[in-house]
Every structure is written in structure tokens, then in C-alpha cells.
Amino acid sequence: EKVPLKMEVNGKQQNLSVEPRATLLDILREQLDLTGTKKGCDYGQCGACTVHVNGQRINSCLTFGIMMNGKKITTIEGLAQGDQLHPMQEAFIKHDGFQCGYCTPGQIMSAVSCIREGHAGSEAEIREYMSGNICRCGAYPNIVNAIQEVKD
Ligand code: FES
């Protein structure tokens, strides 16, 4: 039996009816068509599903949708302002912070949090904060460069 869920996603109020066991990730992708958020592992190991809830990053695959009642969600689709990319998106492009791109939405959401939460002081600190976001192409040095550029 489905249950009601009210949450704000990328500035838009959503009144949904969801399966009680549906993850935030599946609701975003399947009910709201926000497929920028990726499913890599579906058990908290890769970071591809990273989104912001009330400004804090979380793995949406580990989060039940019904826990999101009244919360504000931001996904990769919500970062740009109209045609204006977020500075972190610009920096990833400039520094080639990706190859295949599958992990990129999660990397960018974590990278924004890294600076916002004050964990971009040194390269080691950035690498530690970003360690939950796996990139199988190995774009890590370029990702660090992108974060360092936005921080400065
Ligand atoms: Fe959520 Fe991998 S899909 S951490």
C-alpha cells in the first residue's frame, strides 16, 4: 500500500504517493524522472547517488523516501541557475573531472558539500572528504583540481 510523501525537489513542491520501502533514489529516478542521480551499487558504497537534503549530502540509495517528508532535496538537475552552470560544474568541465561521466553527478554534489562544509583546506582533506565517491575511470586528480579552483 502506498503512502503520501511531500517534499521539495529542486525548488518545486512534490506531493507523491510512494511505496513505503522505496528509496529516495528510486523515487527521484522513477517517479520524478530525475535521472541525473545515478544508481551505481545501490548499497552505499559508490556515491553515484549523492544528493543534498536540507543542504547536507546523503546517499539517496540508503535513504527511504518516506523519511524525506517536509525536506528540501537538491539533485544535480537543481544546481544550475537557468543557463548558468554552477561554478563546480564549470570547474569539472575545465579540469576534465570525468571520463565516462557516470559518477559525475554524485562527485559534483559531494564536491559542493566539501567546500560548503569547510573540508577543502588541503588536497589530503579533499581526498578524505571525497573518498566515498568512487570513479572507476580514475579522474581523481582532476576532480581535486576542480574543487581547489572553486575553493580559491
Ligand atoms: Fe548509492 Fe552507490 S548507488 S552509494
TrEMBL record:
Chain segments annotated as coiled-coil in the UniProt record: none
Residues of the 2Fe-2S ferredoxin-type domain: 3-79
Keyword terms: Iron, Metal-binding, Oxidoreductase
Keyword ATP-binding: no
Signal peptide limits: none
Name of the protein described by the UniProt record: (2Fe-2S)-binding protein
Organism annotation: Mucilaginibacter sabulilitoris
Range within the parent protein: 58 to 209 of 214
